[in-house]
Amino acid sequence: MELAARYGLSNPEHRRLPKRIPPEKARIDDTSPVLTYDSGKCITCFRCIKACTEIQGKGVLSMNSRGDTATVIAGFYNWKESECDGCGECVQLCPTGALVERLHREEINITRTETVKTTCPYCGVGCQITLHVQDGKILRSDGFEGVLPNDGRLCVKGRFGYDFVGAPDRLTRPLIRVSEKKGTFKALAEGREPQWREASWEEALELIARRFSKIKEEKGPDALAGYASAKGTNEDNYLFQKFIRTVFGTNNLDYCTRLCHSSTVTAMLKSIGDGAGTNSIEDFEKTACLFITGNNIIETHPVTATYVKAGKQAGNKIILCDPRWTPLADYADIWLQPKIGTDVALLNGIINVIIKEELYDRSFIESKISGGMESFKALKKLASAYPPEKAEAITSVPSETIQAAARLYAGAETAMVVTGMGMSQQTHGTDNVFSLINMMLISGQVGRQACGIDPPRGQNNVQGVTDVGCSPIVYPGYIPVADQANRRRLAELWQVPFESLPAEPGLTTIEIMNAAGEGSVKGLYIMGENPMITDPNQNHTAEALEKLDFLVVQDIFPTDTTPFADVILPAASFAETEGTFVNSDRRVQRVRKAVDPPGEAKEDWQILCAVAETMGRPLGSYSGPSEPLGPSEHFGPSATSAASTTSAASAASNIFDEIARATPIMAGINYQRIEEEGIQWPCPTPDHPGTPTLFLEGFSTPDGKARLNPVHYLPETERTSAQDPFILNTGRLLYHYHTSTMSRRNKPLRDFIDHSYMLIHPDDAAALQLSNGDQVRLENNRGAFSSTVRISSGVSRGELFVPFHFNESPVNQLTRSDTLDPYSKMAGFKLSACRLVKED
Ligand SMILES: Nc1nc2c(c(=O)[nH]1)N[C@H]1C(S)=C(S)[C@@H](COP(=O)(O)OP(=O)(O)OC[C@H]3O[C@@H](n4cnc5c(=O)[nH]c(N)nc54)[C@H](O)[C@@H]3O)O[C@H]1N2
Ligand SMILES: Nc1nc2c(c(=O)[nH]1)N[C@H]1C(S)=C(S)[C@@H](COP(=O)(O)OP(=O)(O)OC[C@H]3O[C@@H](n4cnc5c(=O)[nH]c(N)nc54)[C@H](O)[C@@H]3O)O[C@H]1N2
Ligand code: SF4
Ligand code: SF4
Ligand SMILES: [Mo]
Hints:
Blueprint: H1 2-6, E1 28-29, E2 35-38, H2 47-55, E3 61-63, E4 72-74, H3 89-93, E5 99-101, E6 114-119, E7 128-134, E8 137-143, H4 156-160, E9 175-177, H5 184-189, E10 196-198, H6 201-219, E11 224-227, H7 234-248, E12 253-254, H8 262-272, H9 283-286, E13 289-293, H10 297-300, H11 302-313, E14 317-321, E15 334-336, H12 343-356, H13 362-368, H14 372-383, H15 388-395, H16 399-411, E16 415-419, H17 421-424, H18 429-442, E17 452-454, H19 462-467, E18 474-475, E19 479-480, H20 484-494, H21 509-518, E20 523-527, H22 531-534, H23 538-547, E21 550-555, E22 567-570, E23 579-582, E24 587-591, H24 604-614, H25 639-644, H26 647-651, H27 655-662, E25 679-680, E26 726-731, H28 747-752, E27 758-760, H29 762-767, E28 775-779, E29 784-791, E30 799-803, E31 832-838
Parallel strand pairs: 11-12, 11-20, 13-14, 13-16, 14-15, 16-17, 20-21, 21-22, 26-30, 27-29
Antiparallel strand pairs: 1-2, 2-5, 3-4, 6-7, 7-8, 9-10, 9-22, 18-19, 23-24, 24-25, 26-31, 27-30, 28-29, 28-31
Helix pairs in contact: 6-24, 7-24, 8-18, 12-15, 12-16, 12-18, 15-16, 21-23
The structure holds ligand MGD (2 copies), iron/sulfur cluster (2 copies) and molybdenum atom.
One ligand MGD binds at residues 229-232, 256, 259-260, 421, 425, 458-459, 527-531, 534, 554-557, 559, 571, 573-574, 604, 730-731, 738-739, 741-742, 804, 811-812, 815, 829.
């Protein structure tokens, strides 16, 4: 910066250089949806090529010749036909403007923009971004350099996915339903939209308070329930659980984590006492061996994947386990391709080899596993039923490959297991993860640097939302609801009677929907979730939502769920609020306000405070997420009294400070400490540096030892039949995010892909005479939807894959909600039997 100032370069006008190649001879490539390249401005410095190859691990770019005529090319010719996935790393590192963003090119004037550092709102990697704001509009997003987790890197969503914030169809005013709710789903299918009228906040709040209070009075607190939001901040969600517990008076409170890593967390809590990832993001590069199972890491955690690729480049080994090809297969030393739902048999096969070949770690077992060699013997006995040949018969993975994986993982100097939705989203999900942990424990691949188990967390704040207590079974900081001493402590902090804090476990996400269907839950408050697309068994979800006496949906957009609401409340987005998210490696990071919310939209925490006040049970008088902010902004009926509330309430007027007091694992964190870089919990005291790696000094179980949980393989109850001969697998792709309420409102992301497709093996396609581009209907006895055929040898015979991002092809028409994992209550999102019908 100093040099730039000395040479007068602070003003962009002074930076204009003569072009290396005259405009008439320059090569311009504007075929990419996200960037353009002008060889006239290129000084052939190779920074973009290094960015693409060395930082992102993609190798898309090269120089097409040398000397004066040299230009950068993508792939063999142009960007559109190359394998460029639009991460924009090359643009960020281009020093001359030869590579520039297409987005808002004409509008942006960097002498007029202000920058705001914040956290990406999409996935749990938690990349730090710089938003460039001009005249109240976000016009650019850059990766923030020099701090973890991303050190400047981004994926296409974090860099080019911010236009949703200013989308014209944001919710801007409260809406009250005018038309009948019964029959909504049928009416929607026939093209009839529900009728709404705009209302003032006052009227909407009054209606909500009256209706929720009535249900509570007549049917009791457990007839009410809430879905929290992994898109919202810790501050929003902390107040949400406080609201559900102190205003509704129930523990019926859950969120998308139940559909996500609940199996992983259930198994981890039981085996090792903690459900969060053990390692820091850099360890993905450092560990000698990565065992990645049921996780499409390159598409779903793209920036974590840059560390994985760098590790591979440095000689580390990768074992991939996925029934379907994912981009990581190109980097894997071993690809295990089991039949869907057979992981327990596969892992028991690997354990069998580890034991038979004495690759286990005896001293670890003796000193760090509860029951020592006795427990080990029980696992040994169980695993003896799974010689590799037997595992092969169940999983279809060749026995030699099973042996090779066992030797590579157990024999590595350091190793990490990485587990995703393919393992968790099964009705035997908890057993899957138990088996994975058994393998890790007997190999002694945990409790040391660069060793452990990491479930890459999905949503931007899915980690934080349970950390701050949005769970039917634990209060903030993972303290069980039954813990009396903790409830006493919270009753004092929250200034409510001890007896009023619910002590019985509440209902989980799918159980709440089932209870709504049965009529025992009557009122539901959904803050930032879209269950019509994401809960299993869509027809059942629709029925349950229609049956509710009263439903409030608080979102930033109209969604597939809002048509079922009685009141829709407009919320501020991540870019319009202050707060914190917790990322995948337990890093508590800042979220900062960049622009104002549209219309009358309010921050989620403000809305919760206003509803609580209107219901006569204020949550407290908060000045904001943290102290250094501006003056308090209250609205709603009792605005004046709230603003003038005195000492007792204003003593706890900062939401984050209250979170730190309620949540022991975050007790030492405050906004000042995380101003520059996030801190990884546990961080119990203000002088504690945070904890990059868990379990270095023992496990989080009461005796500090881990537990083996030997489990047998149980075949799925959902099976193929003559009528339903295919198994449908569902999941994600890079460019879209969940129900796409955010991602599909960005043109660059739509330009990459904007439609559903179904992957089918070439032999199956041939047998059914299907060609690429044909329309097919997928059906079973629960429902049906249509998609477009894409033939691929990346899926096995008899298995299909459809992404769940496109609401016109709702995959959850076919998934089950009646059979859940007995421990985690997870639904089998990855395994539904179905048939195919070709459409004309
Ligand atoms: N681009 C993008 N990124 C995202 C998201 C998004 O929507 N879009 N969502 C975020 C969220 S909330 C989450 S939870 C994460 C999820 O990230 P991932 O865990 O990667 O999720 P999925 O793509 O659903 O599933 C992962 C893989 O599991 C495989 N699988 C299916 N059945 C089995 C099986 O029986 N055994 C094994 N071993 N594997 C199986 C699938 O083929 C798939 O490749 O991604 C996060 N990141
Ligand atoms: N078949 C199938 N189903 C699945 C999965 C699968 O792999 N296959 N995956 C499951 C998994 S892992 C997950 S995590 C779930 C995700 O399930 P959901 O959480 O229901 O999905 P999202 O689309 O992320 O919903 C978030 C909602 O919050 C809104 N929103 C965004 N920002 C804000 C904000 O600041 N405030 C408020 N109030 N609202 C906001 C968005 O517009 C959106 O409507 O889906 C699950 N369902
Ligand atoms: S946008 Fe990303 S993938 Fe594409 S060329 Fe640039 S660095 Fe490579
Ligand atoms: S990897 Fe995740 S957090 Fe990072 S930019 Fe992409 S979506 Fe955002
Ligand atoms: Mo998730």
